[in-house]
Design goal:
Layout: H1 3-14, H2 18-37, E1 42-44, E2 48-55, E3 58-61, E4 68-71, E5 74-81, H3 83-89
Antiparallel strand pairs: 1-2, 2-5, 3-4
GO molecular function, one term: identical protein binding
GO cellular component, one term: DnaA-HU complex
Pfam families: Bac_DNA_binding
């Protein structure tokens, strides 16, 4: 399912227009992005938690040349599924 499919499905089930659903979805995604950028986490009880995790620096290898390169540490987005979501997927 892509973003368009998601908007269409929510629109059909909720009775809202596709334009309204798209505005809400874009607002939600923007708020999650802003929160993660600021180092906060977004917790939706039963669904899951969006957070950032620190990835340690490491030594890698350039596959084209074989030279070793230093990969710096970074923060990466992560999602941890909640219990209700885990049960629904089983």
């Amino acid at each position: 399912m892509n973003k368009t499919d998601l908007i269409n499905n929510i629109s059909e089930k909720s009775g809202l227009t596709k334009r309204d659903v798209e505005a809400v979805l874009n607002g939600f995604l923007g708020e999650v992005t802003d929160a993660l950028s600021n180092g906060d986490k977004v917790q939706l009880i039963g669904f899951g938690t969006f957070e950032t995790r620190k990835r340690n620096g490491r030594v890698g290898r350039n596959p084209q040349t074989g030279k070793t390169i230093e990969i710096p540490e970074s923060n990466v987005p992560a999602f941890k599924a909640g219990n209700k979501l885990k049960e629904a997927v089983k």
